[in-house]
Amino acid sequence: ASSQQLHSVGMDIDCHSAAAEKALQELKQALQVSAPRGSAQQRQQEEAACERLAQRTKNSLESYKLELRALPNDQQVEHADRLKKLDEGLRHCRAQLDWRRLDKEALAAQEQAASSGGGSGPGAAGSEGDGVVTLDQAVAAAESTQAESQKSVMRSMKMVLQAEQIGISTLDEMHKQEEQMDRIEEEVYDIQADLKRSKKLVVQMARSAASDRLIWILCALITVALMVMIVLAATGKDGGQLNMPDEVRQVGRG
Predict the structure, then answer these.
(1) Spatial contact of 20 and 89, defined as CB atoms under 8 Å apart
(2) How many whole angstroms separate alpha carbon 42 and alpha carbon 36?
(3) Contact, 90 vs 57, CB < 8 A?
(4) 192 versus 4: which is more confidently predicted?
(5) What is the pLDDT of residue 184?
(6) DSSP string of 17-79, one letter each residue
(7) pTM of the model
(8) At a CB cut-off of 8 Å and minimum separation 6, what does 84 contact?
(9) What is the mean pLDDT of residues 198-225?
(10) How far is CA 167 from CA 81, 89, 162, 173, 242, in A?
(11) Using the 8-state DSSP alphabet, how is residue 133 labeled?
(12) Which of 106, 117, 173, 210 is deepest in the core (most CB within 10 A)?
């Protein structure tokens, strides 16, 4: 029953993982298709659609993380790399959405400054002298200052987003290098294992050669001993003590 439960949990986790990957892919496609320029209504609709997809991806990732808690620690490690890639992809898409929002705010500020920065007509208070600033002029100056402040804030935000994207790219590169180092470490372990096996084979071959050499030496000694015994028996110098066939002794007497 426990194995069936783990199998069911694993299938649920795979479903949540596939849903998160699908939502992230749809978000990336929406960001590629949506045009940063166009009418205000069109930009607003595209931004709202991307925000919905981003929220959907985030919810899928949260569900994926919750389901992972039901797995043992050794099985959670198998999903760690996949979850990390999904989180990084969502952060990258979120940075692009922030860029789109800043571009939209910059265009709105430019349009507002262009519409309010025209002429300066007579104000409600009227002009009491040549050096007196009218109400319209004061409002226009304030709006111009506000627009410049917004531009400055947007430039700062763009610099922050650029730094964030650089950080994301650097993190991706570090992950790639980490994976490469892991592969190199595994190859080093394989090489060490091959060297150990080769060393054992060499030792076994040396022992086998040594045992074969001893066998050859014993065979040679036995052959020499037999030849000496035959000669002694044939010449009669053994005193009849060696157990030899009579034919051998007759050969020596003849």
Answers:
(1) no
(2) 10
(3) yes
(4) 192
(5) 92
(6) HHHHHHHHHHHHHHHHHS-SSS-HHHHHHHHHHHHHHHHHHHHHHHHHHHHHTTS-HHHHHHH
(7) 0.41
(8) 175
(9) 86
(10) 19, 13, 9, 10, 97
(11) P
(12) 106
